[in-house]
Design goal:
Strand content: 5-15%
Structural class: alpha+beta
Number of domains: 2
Radius of gyration: 22 Å
Strand order of the largest sheet: 10-9-8-11
Number of strands: 12
Largest sheet: 4 strands, mixed
Oligomer: single chain
Order of helices and strands: HHHHHHEEEEHHEEEHHEEEEE
Helix content: 25-40%
CATH superfamily of the largest domain: paralog of FGE (formylglycine-generating enzyme)
Number of helices: 10
Distance between the termini: 60 Å
Length: 446
C-alpha cells in the first residue's frame, strides 16, 4: 500500500494564495503588512505543495553526497526564518527546539557547528510530522510578528522576511532536483507525479539574434532584498555578437553523440575530458538506451526522448564541448543579459506546473525564445564578483564565498520559481554539475 503523502496529513497552516501582489510603492503600514504576509504565505505554501506527492519514506532519501533529503529542506528553510527573523527580532519568541539549530543549520561553518551532509540521510528522528509541526510553529510566529511589529521596525522585518522568502524559493528548486536524482537512483524509476499529457510540438527552427555590442549596463540596482552577487549595476563593453534564438535541442545534441563527440578529445577542455573519462559520460544525465531507442528519466518517470525539447542535465564541460563541435561558443553572461534586458520574464517555470523542459513554440515574434524557464543556460563566464562588489556582513544570501570554481548559468529552469528568473539573475554551479536542469544556448562573434 503506498505511503500516505505527508503534506496531506500535516500540511503547514498557510492559506491558498493565487498570485504575488506587487510591492506597495507608497502606502500605509497595513498595506506593507498585507503584502509581506501574502508573499510569506505563498512561498511557504509552495514548498508544502512540492512535498505533497511524497510519502514519508521519500522524505528521508539522499542519493547525492552534496544533496539533502526533502525533510531537511523543509526544516532548513524553517530554521532560516527562525534564526534570521524570529530569534533576533521577536520579543518573547520561544525556540521550537534548540537541537534543531544543529540539525538543520546551513551546511557550512558560518552558523557554528553543523552536521556533515552525508549524515543527513540518517535523520529518521525528528520525524517528518515533527518537522511539519516545526514549520507550523514558525509560520504562526512570523505572521504574528508581521502583524504586531511596531511601525518603526516594520521595514527591517520586511527585509528579513523577504530574504527568507528568496532563500526558501531557491531551496524549492534544490528540493525537486534532489528528489529527481533520488527517484532515478531507485531501480523502479518511480514517478514524482503522474505523467503530463501534452500535444506534440513541431520543431522550432534555429535563428540567430544579432547585437551591435557597445556599452551596456548589467546587474541589479534596486534596493530590494536579494543575492549580493547580482550587485552593483555597472557598465560592460561588448563586441558585436549573435545569440541563438532557442536552446540546443535533444535531437541536435544526439547528433553530437552520434558523431562521436564523447570520444573526441579535440572537442573538450583538458579538465572536461578527464571528468568525462573518470565519470564515463556517454550521454546527458538521465538518458538511457532502452528497447532500441533513447529514453529519458523525468519527474513523470521514464519516457521516450523528444528530439524537439531542450537538452537538459548536461555539465558545463559537455556544453562547452558541444559548442566547440558545432563551431560556436557559449555566451558571455553579459551578452546573455544584454539580449534578455527588457524581455518578459515568462516561460515554463515552476509556477506553470510542468516539471520538464518543453519544446520551443514560435509565438509570432522574432525571438529569442525560452530565455526564461525550461533549462538554465550555461555561459562561458566564471562566477566572479562584479566591479565594486562589497559583501554584506551577516547577509544570509551572501554568495562571495562561492566565487571560485563555479560557472554562471542564466535564465532559470522548469523548476525555478518565477521571481527567481529575471534578466539579472545569476546562478552558479560547479562545471561538473549535471543534476541541475542545465542546458545550452549558443553564441558567436558577429
Amino acid at each position: 500500500m503506498p505511503a500516505k503523502p505527508l503534506a496531506a496529513a500535516a500540511a503547514p497552516s498557510v492559506a491558498p494564495v493565487a498570485a504575488d501582489l506587487p510591492p506597495p510603492a507608497e502606502g500605509t503600514p497595513d498595506a506593507l503588512r498585507l503584502w509581506l504576509s501574502t508573499r510569506f504565505h505563498k512561498a511557504r505554501q509552495r514548498t508544502a505543495e512540492l512535498v505533497a506527492p511524497l510519502g514519508v519514506e521519500d522524505l528521508m532519501v539522499q542519493s547525492l553526497p552534496d544533496g539533502a533529503p526533502a525533510k531537511w529542506h523543509l526544516a532548513h528553510t524553517t530554521w532560516f526564518f527562525e534564526s534570521t527573523v524570529l530569534e533576533p527580532c521577536a520579543p518573547g519568541y520561544r525556540t521550537f527546539d534548540t537541537v534543531f539549530r544543529q540539525l538543520f543549520t546551513a551546511l557550512d561553518d558560518r552558523f557554528g557547528q553543523h552536521l556533515p551532509a552525508p549524515i543527513l540521510r540518517l535523520l529518521s528522528r525528528p520525524t517528518a510530522a515533527e518537522v511539519m509541526r516545526y514549520r507550523d510553529h514558525v509560520n504562526g510566529a512570523v505572521l504574528h510578528l508581521i502583524d504586531r511589529v511596531p511601525e518603526e521596525r516594520l521595514e527591517e522585518i520586511s527585509e528579513r522576511v523577504q530574504l527568507g522568502i528568496v532563500h526558501e524559493r531557491r531551496h524549492q528548486e534544490r528540493l525537486l532536483s534532489d528528489v529527481k536524482h533520488a527517484f532515478w537512483s531507485n531501480p523502479l524509476r518511480p514517478a514524482y507525479e503522474p505523467p503530463a499529457t501534452l500535444p506534440p510540438s513541431p520543431p522550432l527552427e534555429q535563428t540567430w539574434i544579432g547585437h551591435t555590442g557597445g556599452v551596456v549596463q548589467v546587474g541589479r540596482d534596486d534596493p530590494s532584498p536579494g543575492f549580493d552577487h547580482e550587485r552593483p549595476r555597472h557598465a560592460v563593453m561588448l563586441r558585436p555578437f549573435v545569440l541563438a534564438g532557442r536552446p540546443v535541442t535533444c535531437g541536435e545534441y544526439l547528433a553530437f553523440m552520434q558523431d562521436g563527440g564523447y570520444a573526441k578529445p579535440t572537442c573538450w577542455l583538458g579538465d572536461g575530458w578527464e571528468a568525462a573519462r573518470a565519470e564515463d559520460w556517454q550521454a546527458p544525465l538521465y538518458w538511457e538506451w532502452r528497447e532500441g531507442g533513447w529514453q529519458v528519466f523525468t519527474l513523470y518517470g521514464m519516457r521516450p526522448l523528444d528530439p524537439n525539447e531542450p537538452v537538459c542535465h548536461v555539465s558545463w564541460y559537455e556544453a562547452d564541448a558541444y559548442a566547440r563541435w558545432a563551431g560556436k561558443r557559449l555566451p558571455d553572461e553579459s551578452e546573455w543579459e544584454a539580449v534578455a534586458a527588457g524581455k518578459e520574464c515568462s516561460g515554463n517555470l515552476l509556477g506553470n506546473g510542468h516539471r520538464h523542459p518543453r519544446p520551443g513554440v514560435c509565438r509570432g515574434t522574432e525571438g529569442p525564445w525560452q530565455l526564461f524557464g525550461d533549462v538554465w543556460e550555461w555561459t562561458r563566464s566564471a562566477f566572479m564578483p562584479y566591479p565594486g562588489y562589497t559583501p554584506v556582513e551577516g547577509d544570509g544570501a551572501q554568495s562571495g564565498r562561492f566565487m571560485a570554481n563555479r560557472m554562471v548559468v542564466r535564465g532559470g529552469s522548469c523548476v525555478t520559481p518565477f521571481d527567481y528568473a529575471t534578466p539579472t539573475t545569476r546562478h552558479f554551479l560547479r562545471p561538473t554539475t549535471r543534476t541541475a536542469f542545465t542546458g545550452i544556448r549558443l553564441a558567436e562573434d558577429a
